[in-house]
Amino acid sequence: MTVGTRFGSDAAAPATRVDAPWRRRLRFFFAVLRARPSFAVGYAIVGSVILVAVLAPWIAPFDPLKADPSVYLLPPGGRHLLGTDGAGMDILSRILYAPRVDLTIAVLGTLVSALAGGAIGAIVGYYEGQRAWRRALSATVMRSADVLQAFPVFVFAIALVAVFGQSVRSIVIAIAFVNVPIYLRLMRSQVLSIRQLRYVEAAYVAGASDLAILWRHIIPNAIAPLVAQLSINIGWSVLLTAGLSFVGAGVVAPTPEWGSMIAMGFQNVVTGQWWPSVFPGIALGLTVFGFALVGASIEVLADPARRRILSGSMA
Amino acid sequence: MMPLVRYIARRIVFVVPQLFGIVLVSFFLVKLIPGDPAVMMLGPTASAQSLAELRDKMGFTKPLLEQLTHYLADVARGDLGTSWQTTRPVTEDLFQRFPATLELVTFGLLLAIAIGFPLGVAAARLKRGVTRKVADYYGLLAGALPDFWLALVLIYVFYTVLGWIPAPLGRIDMAILPPPTISGSLVIDSLLAGDWEALRSSLGHLALPVLTLGLINAGPILKMTQSMTERTLSSDFVRYAEMCGLPRRVVLRQAVRAALPSVVTIISVLYGFLIGGAVLVEIVFSWGGAGQYAVQGVLNADLNPVLGFVVFSAVLSLVTYLIVDLIYFALDPRLRA
Amino acid sequence: MVAAPILDISDLWVSFPAYRAEPVRALKGVDLAIPPGEFIGLVGESGSGKTTLARAAMGLVPPPGIIERGQVLFNGRNMGQIEDEARRAVLGRELAMVIANPRAELNPVVPVGRQISNIVFYHLSVSRAEADRRALEMLRAVRIPDAERRFAAYPHELSGGMAQRVVIAIALACTPKLVISDDATSGLDVTVQTQVLDLLKTMVAEKGASALFITRDIAITAHYCSRIAVIFAGEIVELAPVATFFERPAHPYSITLLAAFSHSPELRLRWTRPPEVDAAPIPAGGCAFAARCVRRRERCLAEAPLLRPLAGGRSVRCHFPVDESVT
Fold this sequence. Notes:
Largest interface: A-B, 49 and 50 residues
CATH architecture of chain B: Orthogonal Bundle
Number of domains of chain B: 1
Distance between the termini of chain B: 12 Å
Radius of gyration of chain C: 21 Å
Number of strands of chain B: 2
Structural class of chain C: alpha/beta
Number of strands of chain C: 12
Strand order of the largest sheet of chain C: 6-7-8-3-9-10-12-11
CATH class of chain B: Mainly Alpha
Number of helices of chain B: 14
Structural class of chain B: mainly alpha
Largest sheet of chain B: 2 strands, antiparallel
Low-confidence stretches of chain C: none
Strand content of chain B: under 5%
Largest sheet of chain C: 8 strands, mixed
Oligomer: heterotrimer
Order of helices and strands of chain C: EEEHEEHEHHHHHEHEHEEHHHHEE
CATH architecture of the largest domain in chain C: 3-Layer(aba) Sandwich
Strand order of the largest sheet of chain B: 1-2
CATH class of the largest domain in chain C: Alpha Beta
Shape of chain C: globular
Helix content of chain B: over 70%
Mean pLDDT of chain B: 82
Strand content of chain C: 15-25%
């Protein structure tokens, strides 16, 4: 938008545009995508999966829950592009509907764990090593996190789902529980190294309250690795959800979900009908792959040192 | 020698409260799992009286705290309770099943290291080229694929289509007598006994699950090796070594050696994770491992196996971390100061 | 009969490309020739280009930096275009660097004696036993007390001064023709610094090598160097024999540097230009030092000065050098 479009073009005005910082960042972002096509692939995959989740009712050729026994175990091709499973449900439609469940669970669970773990980690990291009772508190929290992380993840998740009853909500809780220690540790180590920096000391001396220091100075600078971890974690949570559904401790059949679809097609694989299990697995792997790529790109973009190396190679 | 002994002693002191905490949390967690074990054990047609008798005998009617102390005392004695599904003591069940899991996880991780480590080093050395691209994508893809799915695909290819592998049912052909148990690993025990038939069968059954775990876990090992080697290759002392004109392979060796601690860390983390995390592969191949045992316990409200498994695997994890710390001690002279 | 210079830098331009901006020029047309046996000091502030110059001399300009123009010849070889293998043969053997911050740059998991022995082993193709022997000799030569025991010590077990001596031992182990010392003594106590520098000078003289002594501290050069070069913003602004330089400095920046060590506050004040708040930016194309020069005039803003010879064996990059007199 050049100067003076509203009142007619101003030919005498200088053609230089001072870009708003957000626009500059956006342009840099797209240049990075061009320079690193793998990142672009990641964003494309994640974008498509989100789109599919939203648009599923309109783009799926069949009702994902409609079981037509007369067409069971049809090989891919024809009306059923990816074939049908043992109950006669169209595989393509179920694959398209699955992200609704998987993504919701994964995103919710990861966000909850990031917020909770990040908050606790920030407090622990900030107060660690200071006055006595606070030191004891942070030690207790860290040892509790150790205990939590010593649990076999999968068994722990199944146990949580069993305790809270098999529902989407309990899977979200399970994922949140399992991931909290990760964000807790990450945020704590970030806060520990940032709080030694001069500008934090300056804010403290200037009389800012602990909360203000944390909120305005420390957390904005600590948050980058957590955001990178978020994306990778979402991918991994989708895998966990699928695994839970595979053993029957996840979503309730016949809800379309990639893991339970693989479970349903389990016996068929051995007898030669591979498509009910293989296609959902490909979709699952691609989705997690996309999230991992996005996470890798955030890692590079959020770290000033690596960003500089990247822009140097792009110059 | 003394600093080493002191170090180990310090670590063990830490381990005890951690173990206690784990048992505590799992006890309460497991007690929360719904399902009446008495009903499960006696069946739906049991009379109310026999149900009440059983509950009383099993101690379910006592207050929780008393149950907890009872359980802790048992654990201290080495008694992990009985599984109502197998009707055998949990300790026995675990001793039978853990070697299966360990055999699987150990061989799987060895394969993963064999694939991931060299590729990671190669990828760190080469800035561009085919090898680098392959390594980059493999690292990400391997971590993204679901292990149970890959297992199914491998079964389809190698069993259903090619017929190279025996049916995925357990660790050894049912018609063959397993060798006497020495190490718990069928492969090793067959070797030790000179039983070639058992060796062939157990190897055949081991092939696909190990391949699955190896291919998938090579990913994180590759990525960690690559990123740590890259980081050390650009570190100060490597730059200095370049400035001194040391040959390229010497510099590379020094960089890799400096990256080893992180790689060892992630291998140990993976090992601890896989003890419970290989469950899905165990289920697909009907492996009869400990993770499978625990999952069945959860799904059927059979509490003692779950508790026993958690305690066992926690102990194993802590022992693994201790060993890893000892390896660090050996690798890095700075720690000995 | 003038021997060919061991290090011949001519019209060297090194720049670092930047994303969507002008590349950063670290070195702009540097000329420097070091004859064999000479101990020359290079003085400049942080960011002046000293380290880039040192790295370019070794053929190790850090990426993404590139040599835009000019060349660096070491012993006749073009270091900007040398292949990896050939460069590895030269570095550490004929051209060595003594680094600052040795404890960060020595390998933390290899004993120091072994690190010296490695250099000898890989460069001189002798047996490991012979390399170890020579390494021990070097440890004694740099006067590390209790050398036999210290041979097996790790870098973190040594003090700063001792680690610095180890690095000198590594640099001199293969009797190089040129030793570059990059700020090798900053961070050391003053007494240790003197010891280390004395040592360096003696050993360099004994082996008949040349030395390029890079520092931020101009005072040291008076004691150890025969010639001094002052670098500012990527350009050599003065080049002179040491005695002449300290008696009659020519470039305003040189005087600013010297004045910083002077005991007279008036002198310091006279030679330091106060920062101006609303000043118009110096147009590119003028003298790089003009923004801070107390003697600047119109011509300085418009035209960049070239390095030109003055009497007394000096060269100065200034339109109005402070001292043009002859003696």
